[in-house]
Amino acid sequence: MFDVLFKLGWFFKQERKRYIGAVILLLIANVTEVLPPWLIGKTIDLITDRELTKTVFYEILAVFGVLIVVGYFIHYAWRYLLFNGSQLLESLMRRKLMAKFLSMSPSYYEKNRTGDLMARATNDLSAIRQTVGFGILTLIDSTTFLITIILMMGFLVSWKLTILAMLPLPLLAIIEQRLGKMIHKRYTVSQDAFGDMNDDVLESIEGIRVTRAFAQEDNLNRRFTRMTTDVVDKFMAVERLDALFKPLTIIVTMVSFIIALGYGSILVNRGEITIGELIAFNVYLNMMVWPMFAIGLLFNIMQRGNASLDRVREVLDAEDMMEDSVDTLVAPDHHVSFDAVNFRYPTSEQVNLKAVTIELGVGQTLGIVGPTGSGKTTLIRQILKEYPVGEGHITIGGLNIQQLSKHQVREKIGYVSQENILFSRSVRENILFGRPDATEAELAHAIELANFTEDVKRLPQGLDTLVGEKGIAISGGQKQRISIARAMIKNPAILILDDSLSAVDAKTETAIIEHIQQSRQGKTTLISTHRLSAVRHADLIVVLDSGEIVQQGTHQALIQQSGWYLDQFNRQQLRKEEM
User: Fold this and answer.
1) Which tens digits make up the pLDDT trace of 336-371?
2) Average per-residue pLDDT in the chain?
3) Which helix (H) or strand (E) holds 564?
4) In the chain, which end has fewer C-beta atoms inside a 10 angstrom radius, N or C?
5) CB 342 within 8 A of CB 354
6) Can you spell out the DSSP letters for 264-325?
7) How confident is the model at residue 326, as a pLDDT?
8) Is 331 helix (H, G, I), strand (E, B) or coil?
9) How many whole angstroms separate alpha carbon 305 and alpha carbon 318?
């Protein structure tokens, strides 16, 4: 049950002063709480024996007042230390999770669902916070307070009565331990179900346009209803076990009360204890309800926290398939070279790139074309270091890409993906994401290069217009041009456009290409596209088919030879004439 505490030992060691202070204050608080019942018993005995004077009465009241005030401040102090520590842990682990998410390669997200990862970063971290906060409270308070009460009952009243009243406790501990193990299993299942539901909600929101276009709202709603019902059922399975804790505690406590009242009365009749001591004993017994109930909560909280911590550690301990270089080499320029590169995705059964050899000098433009699924994006991903390098060599500036860290490589690159991911912020913030310290003049220049100046004027709030979740509030062409502006404002040594002009018209495409040609003198550019007009100016064009280069050369050279490029060129020319 306490595995979770050992797993978090590094945090308790780091915050040992905080937790040592909280434990000491909690022990002092226990003493301030157990003294009043003893004073009550003594007062009753003084009244019974007609020995209570006004002076003694006021002294007792003064002691009560001091205990209340001291207890108040001590309780405030230890609760602040304890629960502030739990918030610190949650914040620290959330930062670790975020750092892990940012460092992992795309292959990790291909195997793990976004909704499940979100559940681990929210619900599971909340359960861990509860464990380190309320869990530590119940652990220390239920044990130390219980022991303190038992010692007071034994030394100040009667050990015989105390031992008999405590007989039901071991049975409660055994039952609650078994319940705790069952809760651990069911809670893990319920959290997995919550992750599935999270993922479904995300997909539904992201695909809302498709859902409406196919009139699938009712079907999705019914599916979500089934999913939420499943989540509720699994959480209720946990709660049904959880609900057993308090009744069990009450039953055991009631049995202890019956024993205390019955055997205590016998001891009073024998003269072994006084009436005041019997009353004090019953007050102590009543005070034991909280630590007994806390023991039940303790099993529950610890098991939930343990299950959640295992899920979070599973993410934190995940190893990235893309090992980063520890070398500190810096590429002298941005000359890009592929030498007999073979590559296969980790989940693929076939080779995705075959013997790819490309030489791209500084300041040159590479056009990458080919049918759908030919490997254009796969080729680009090799430069971005998103997957482990296969066979062959990829170099930037004459240095093997494996000798360069991911950060060093990506610092040189401005990348516009075919997905055109935008953040739910303003147009300005999305473009400045490429270079947050850019001036207004540089921002305006990047917008001009992306041929987006006129569109900005038509937006409701100009650059401050919110683009919505993943750019849902703007058109596909606008999303592409914002993405291009974001890459251009970085003024990268290597610019990569991965089918990033598919949603703009031919006139806009021509303007953007011309701007890129004019602004990127002496810089390297890679353009992957289906439209041959976007790469006509390229110094080298490669035609991929099933991951293999089947043609290469300039535009003029390729239209002089039969093959895919010429066929595609003729089709696109014919389409232009028809329009």
Assistant:
1) 889 988 988 877 778 889 989 999 888 899 999 989
2) 83
3) helix 564-578
4) C
5) yes
6) HHHHHHHTSS-HHHHHHHHHHHHHTHHHHHHHHHHHHHHHHHHHHHHHHHHHHTPPPSSPPP
7) 60
8) coil
9) 20
- Cα–Cα distance for residue pair 367/549, rounded to 1 Å: 12
List of the chain residues with pLDDT < 70: 1-2, 173, 176-177, 180, 184, 205-206, 208-209, 212-213, 245, 293, 296, 321-332, 469-472, 575-579
Q: Residue 271: what pLDDT?
A: 84
3-316 and 327-412+534-579 share one fold? no
| Three-state SS letters, 465-517 | CECCHHHCCCCHHHHHHHHHHHHHCCCCCEEEEECCCCCCCHHHHHHHHHHHH
> In the chain, what are the domain boundaries?
3-316, 327-412+534-579
What is residue 401's predicted lDDT score, i.e. its pLDDT?
85
From the list 375, 376, 342, the residue with the least C-alpha distance to 356 is: 342
State whether the Cα torsion 562-564-566-567 is positive or negative.
Answer: positive
- Tell me if residue 183 falls in helix, strand or coil: helix
Q: Which residues of 522-537 are buried (b: 16+ CB within 10 A; e: fewer)?
A: ebbbbbbbebbbbbbb
- What single letter denotes the amino acid at residue 536? R
Nearest to 100 by CA among 389, 316, 311, 312: 316
Six-digit token pair at 248?
Answer: 């069990």
Quick one: pLDDT at residue 294? 73
CATH fold label, 3-316: ABC transporter transmembrane region fold (1.20.1560)
172 closest CA partner among 288, 35, 52: 288
What φ, ψ does residue 390 adopt, rounded to 5°?
Answer: -85, -135
Helix or strand holding residue 73 (H, E): helix 54-103
The amino acid sitting at 140 is I
What span, in angstroms and rounded, lies between the C-alpha atoms of 276 and 157?
9
CATH superfamily entry for domain 327-412+534-579: P-loop containing nucleotide triphosphate hydrolases (3.40.50.300)
Write down the pTM of the prediction: 0.71
Query: Any residues with CB less than 8 A from the CB of 349 and at least 6 apart, and which?
Result: none
- Other C-beta atoms closer than 10 Å to the C-beta of 97 total 18
* CA dist., res. 401 & res. 385, Å (int): 8
